[in-house]
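Before drawing any conclusions, I looked closely at one protein's amino acid sequence and its backbone structure tokens, quoted below without any editing.
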Amino acid sequence: MGIVYNHATKTFHLQANDTSYVMQIVRSGYLAHLYWGKKIRNVNGSRKLKFLDRPFSPNPDPSDRTFSLDTLPQEYPTYGNTDFRTPAYQVQLENGSMISELRYKTHWIYKGKPKLEGLPATYVENENEAETLEILLEDQLIGLHVTLLYTVYEKWNVITRSVRFDNNGSECIKLLRALSMNVDFPHADYEWLHLPGAWARERVIERRPLVSGTQAVESRRGASSHQHNPFIALLQKGANEDYGEVYGFSLVYSGNFLAQIEVDQFRTTRVSMGINPFDFTWLLEPGESFQTPEVVMVYSDKGLNGMSQTYHQLYRTRLARGVYRDRERPILINNWEATYFNFNEEKILRLAKTAAELGIELFVLDDGWFGKRDNDRSSLGDWFVNKQKLPNGLEGLAKNINQMGMQFGLWIEPEMVSVDSELYRKHPDWCLHVPNRPRSEGRNQLVLDYSRKEVCDYIIQAISDVLASAPISYVKWDMNRHMTEIGSAALPTERQRETVHRYMLGLYRVMEEITSRFPHILFESCSGGGGRFDPGMLYYMPQTWTSDNTDAVSRLKIQYGTSLVYPISAMGAHVSAVPNHQVHRITSLEMRGHVAMSGNFGYELDLTKLSEEEKAIVKQQVAFYKDIRRLVQFGTFYRILSPFEGNETAWMFVSEDKSEAFVAYFRVLAEANAPLSFLRLKGLDPNKDYEITGSGEVYGGDELMYVGLNVPERRGDFISVIWHLKESH
């Protein structure tokens, strides 16, 4: 592991565990990309850059018709100086021109990894875990300094990238485009994969070959969104879960983003990612800086599972923070689908009492506890207790629940304001809005303007007061609408297009402050379920509500797709009532439990309405999950059968020492005269023997992986089977 600069050849060789990334300074200071892939020992130039005279590719040096930026693989390209492909950055000067040209000036190599000011990012706990390279590029004419930051991790095939802009000139510079990374690949024989979706149908896996031109995913909604996740991957053709080269790109950001792939006339591929240039500019006055978010790039030569496991390990241990990072997460009951807004203290305590009897560890009070909140038309922003519903306040309710042996948690939605609220009547200009235009509502609410310091200060204090008022050990932080009429009453005209990014900086500041003040609280992020399931959120809150859709069949795809990037410890997964409230499907309590046990386990239903037989099943599920909880939340995850490719789904979890495993199999629809099913397991030690608990059966790890394990015959739709394996001595 390390970063080496060769003065003779002007090459940078970055090595992270088992991957190499190589760049070279060419001609008069252009930074070119040479290689990214399987680790190599040395860079001796076996595939040197080739220069040809290409018609209609102009030349920055008129004396050399073979050299054009239009054909040069670049690290951080601009537009207007002979490269006609998509630029990584673009500026506008005071004279209206948009031409800029960066040349290498100097670089620094050092141990460790710097923090990014005001932004979430991966980190190190010891400087020996990583090395960082900063390459300073300069546009000498206008005094623009652009610093490319690269960090390589010793333990993982990870390279992180971000960019800092410094205006060292005498005139203002307006950033029109400021992406976080660019990689130019030498060919286009790839497929690309991304995770589109919608509310209640998040993170579908789509995979297709690259074609000429531009293919992209993006968000313009003011959040990373249900519709597209800030992640893409390039796959070697034929790559699958276990074999083939995969290049992953994941943006540590929660707002508008762009992930773009361009295949040019010569069948080379340009991948770029960062803040969406749509509705974005940033005015850099002399002496000011701008920092882009971080992109985490992962290389795997062991297929998608290899990529996923790298992201899981990195994000679980070097992105998530706080006391709950490595701590087992409690089994919870949330009252939302049990009561919606229609509850009082007596009803809540009755539900909590039943939950405690079944072994559940945490009670979460959802929406409706504050202001005059009897429906979703009022009171967001009024963060004080509704004493009609809770005459003893949060403190009295929480203490009663604590006495039952359970922890107490709370739902909040601090980024929003209801028009019918004391806060809005007092501060109608505190929401995002444009003068003289109507204010569109979503879920009867408006978005607070977190680009304003006074708004953030108010929320920090109001929420802190709530969290300090009672023994609260868990918070579900929700956000239930996207941005419209984007503008800020506090920003001047020339900075209005900075509003969305300033909002994100304000949100990150609020989250940093509140989570730091209450380190004992487990925070879970939510945005109508999975509308902001992104690495930026995981930096502040180690888990996210995966989807508002709790149907077991739907969750097979949602959780499978989410697992491509995000660790299982980040996924909230609950058992809800049937018919399901989102799709009205009826599935067995057994299958619902098995799907939910494949994440951070909990319930969202009225336990008091269950039969005695159903309560016994719940009690058994709770006890079983406590036995496998650490294995599921912190074990190594393997995908076996994909719900996107057939009627069956299977996955498994293996402990770090390979002494224990949990396997889950699901079949959606029954088939007449169906073929027999078996699973080839993964990740076991071929030299160990494993007992299937409760059966007395013992098999070798090699037999389970290479021969396989029979799936017992079950009749009917919506079937699940689980196995718990332990090393046999």
About this structure: The two ends are 38 Å apart (CA to CA). The first strand starts at residue 2 and ends at 6.
